[in-house]
Amino acid sequence: QCAPDFIKNSSLANAAGWVDVNHETLCHNKYDNIFSLGDIASTPNAKTAAAVRKQAPIVAENIICAMNNKPLHALYDGYGACPLTVEYGKIILAEFGYNGKLLPTFPLDGTKPRRLAWMLKTKILPKVYWDYMLRGKEYLAKPFIHTNIPELDQHQLK
After folding, report:
1. Phi, psi (5° rounding) for residue 83?
2. CA-only gyration radius of the chain, Å
3. Residue 102 DSSP class
4. Residue in 134, 121, 130, 111 with CA at minimum distance from that of residue 52
5. Looking at residues 61-80, what average pLDDT do you find?
6. Taking 60 as the threshold, does the pLDDT of residue 128 lie above it?
7. How far apart are CA 14 and CA 114, in angstroms?
8. Residue 155 confidence (pLDDT)
């Protein structure tokens, strides 16, 4: 994976060619009015649709803060997910954040292969993706709002 040439060759990119953003706020480290998410952002996590569905509300919330000259208070935890097929009919639903921290959405051990995870991937997630996520009707991806912003170093969050 790599960012497209028009990003890699721009002033938006870091040395590795990704849009250079703060990993929590997803705001560009140099330009306060630029945000990035998904496959071109410099976040050190998997580039998955699951990551984007969690990043989008963070970016939306922080753009609203920036437009109102308020501190950026929505923070991304690095969430990503990857359904790993280990045998026909069984999947490990790997959900993780920065530094490999497990971030399960469901109260199941995400390290064990399950038929239920297979059903989720093959029957439920395609409908959720096409009928809800792509239409802006995502209810499980609310941004984490940091409430102690005055105590934080705002420069670090930009």
Report:
1. -75, 120
2. 17
3. B
4. 134
5. 95
6. yes
7. 40
8. 44
Q: Which two tokens stand for residue 64?
A: 């609203």
> Rounded to two decimals, what is the model's pTM?
0.82
Residue type, 141: A
71: tokens are 């501190």
Q: Give the pLDDT of residue 148.
A: 62
- Considering only CA atoms, which of 80, 76, 112 is closest in space to residue 96? 80
User: For residue range 14-27, what is the model confidence (pLDDT) as tens digits?
Assistant: 999 999 999 999 99
Q: Which two tokens stand for residue 126?
A: 């395609």
pLDDT value at residue 144: 67
Short-list 91, 95, 118, CA closest to 45 = 95
- 3-class DSSP state of 118: helix
- Looking at residue 87, its pLDDT comes to 92
Task: Please answer whether residues 117 and 91 qualify as being in contact, where contact means their C-beta atoms are separated by less than 8 angstroms.
Answer: yes
83 beta partners: 93
Q: Which pair of structure tokens corresponds to residue 72?
A: 């950026």
How many CB atoms sit inside 10 A of residue 30's CB? 12
Nearest Cα neighbor of 114 from 93, 129, 143, 141 is 93
CA 21 – CA 28 distance, rounded (Å):
4
8, 44 contact by CB (below 8 A): no
